[in-house]
């Protein structure tokens, strides 16, 4: 008898970790209307490292809080013109990084854009979900919420051990 596994369930918003960027936790909107995933970024500066193109950017990972800022570095995968929900076109850097969503570890492309005026610092688009999940638009945080007893360095250590 063949066993068919059901993909994990996601709510319309979930907590995500981006361990390669030292982002222990960030609230993300699961957006089936968006093709690509987007990550809040400002002070975006491209540079070269060992002959490869990299980008440095800063992120405020907590909604409505500009006191916490994390400097991130990642290789540049591409630079693309992306249309936002209002139809405005913007040329964005694209990076590829692993994200942890519940028990799932996914390598995902993300465009970098300033999302200060948006409610969520991260969008998870269809390409990242890629038939891996079932979305319940009436639910939130199905994959769990952060443990308030853990500090940022403990969460990062746990996340690094998961991807190692």
Summarize the structure.
The strands form 2 sheets. This protein has a 9-stranded mixed sheet with strand order 2-3-10-4-9-8-7-6-5.
Structure, described:
This protein is mostly beta strands and 164 residues long. It has a single domain, classed as Cathepsin D, subunit A, domain 1. It has a nine-stranded mixed β-sheet with strand order 2-3-10-4-9-8-7-6-5. Strands 1-11 form a two-stranded parallel ribbon. It has two helices and eleven strands. The mean pLDDT is 88. It is globular and about 55 Å long. The N and C termini lie far apart (34 Å).
Structural class: mainly beta
Radius of gyration: 16 Å
What would you call the shape? globular
Reading the helices and strands in chain order gives EEEEEEEEEEHEH
The spatial strand order of the largest sheet comes to: 2-3-10-4-9-8-7-6-5
Distance between the termini: 34 Å
Largest sheet: 9 strands, mixed
CATH topology, by name, is Cathepsin D, subunit A, domain 1
Strand segment count: 11
What number of structural domains do the residues give?
1
Keywords:
2 helices, globular, mainly beta, 9-stranded mixed beta sheet, 164 residues
Q: What secondary-structure arrangement, pairings included, does this model have?
A:
Blueprint: E1 9-11, E2 13-18, E3 23-30, E4 37-40, E5 42-49, E6 52-59, E7 70-83, E8 89-101, E9 104-113, E10 122-124, H1 126-129, E11 134-136, H2 152-163
Parallel strand pairs: 1-11, 3-10, 4-9
Antiparallel strand pairs: 2-3, 4-10, 5-6, 6-7, 7-8, 8-9
